[in-house]
Amino acid sequence: MSDPFYITTAIHYPNGRPHIGHAYEMIAADAIARFQRQAGRDVFFQTGTDEHGLKMVKTARDRGVEVRDLADEMSGYFRDMVGILNISCDRFIRTVEPQHYAASQAIWTAMRDAGDLYLDRYEGWYSVRDEAFYEEKELTDGEGGVRLSPQGTPVEWTAEETWFFRLSNYQQPLLDFYAANPDFIQPESRRNEVLRFVEGGLTDLSVSRTSFDWGVPIPDSPGHVMYVWVDALTNYLTGAGYPDAPNHYWPAALHLIGKDIVRFHAVYWPAFLMSAKLPLPHKVFGHGFLLNRGEKMSKSTGNVVDPIKLAELYGVDALRYFLLRDISFGQDGTFSDEAIVARANSDLANSFGNLAQRTLSFIAKNLEGALPDEGRGDPADAALLTAVGEAIDGYRSAFAELALGQALEAWMRGVFACNQYIDVQAPWALRKTDPERMHAVLGTLVRAIRDLAIAIEPVVPASAAALLAQLGQSGRGHEALGDHGWYGEQQGAGFRIAPPTPIFPRLALAEVEPA
Ligand code: ME8
Question: Which residue numbers delimit the Methionyl-tRNA synthetase anticodon-binding domain (predicted)?
Fold first, then answer.
């Protein structure tokens, strides 16, 4: 297949169990991957865990366990979450894999051969929580004399001999690249932040550590392991078979990451790739942060939410739909149990679910499940199919632009059009008065519901697949949208709709507070 589309999430630190922010990122990436597969793209979707670095070493020490054991255990929870949330990744990468060591050492060697690495003494501020170096001018004073990074995390003074990467050489090449590729960093606000940062001047980056050994060893430099971000970013190349068996997926189409790590992806990563003479990814999208009832989540406040628990309480698809519909993609957004329940009920249960359930169960009961006869071309029927087609077109173009919330708003316009049509046409009342017209109305609805279900499959994959299975229409791509040849074929084959079970249950607020 041609037209590759390589999409990645950040790889997540397994220094604890996954939280709702990790789930959000995987769900968004999964919906985009599924959407592109439906559009006929040759998708490769990678997620995984980022297992090296001082943060992992310190967490393991605090818990009194070996760091590799901590990584194995916690990475397992992330992998479990992939299954539970129906994340269709093609590869779950762990940075402890030998293949990833080979890729990290290969890019290192390429950067060294380019003359961009040199040994020197590093003295400066380091945040273990962010695994990041900061300059004095970026810091603020916290309580008790603690110095804080721009992310609000404590920094500590570090002094050791390290390898440096000549980031300062890449200021102009990066600025030229951003100018030539205005869509490289999205959304616009993130792009502006990056431009300001790079325009302010770049200092060389410390890229090895000698004070611990939990990392990828540096070739020909005993005692040095790679700075965790060098190996972490390289995971995207490992997934593309670099260096020994490169496949056709590199360069990536989209790195989907959170707003706090845009600098690593939009400044350091393209500089490393330029140095190693490798192609640059097409796009870095920095999504916003999830807030619990408007509050930042942290272990100390105790308001960190377990996504698995939420999925158990309200259903995977309700959670997926809520996150993508209610949060404007690219901005911060807030969630609560009430908001999840309200959104899932209004859009999925009461609008789309009810529409499908009423229509299909009526057909199962009154027409023995046979697809209704097509009408004689009443303009109202054509108008509904046009309205649904336009809603789906709006949905698809917004989705392709990563305006996921707006896409779902457009999709709902198609659902509303169907519900309005039902109210006006009142098919249940036509059963006695005008059965022929009743057939035409129900047949029109079945075609509209089928297209709306195909369109929404990337967002609520299990539910949409169940609904499409009821119509004998599983696994359809975008080319099937608006093409209703299937209807006559299915009628000809004597297809019957079985009495349906409701696909989108009406939710009630859980009595127990999620952990
Ligand atoms: O940064 N809401 O890992 P990480 C939304 N290992 N997204 C959130 C979030 C929240 N409340 N909290 C975190 C790392 N994220 C590195 C990445 S990539 C080569 C290495 C997002 O586990 C965060 O922005 O701290 C990031 O994209 C992802 O979760 C993993 O964060």
Answer: 372-477
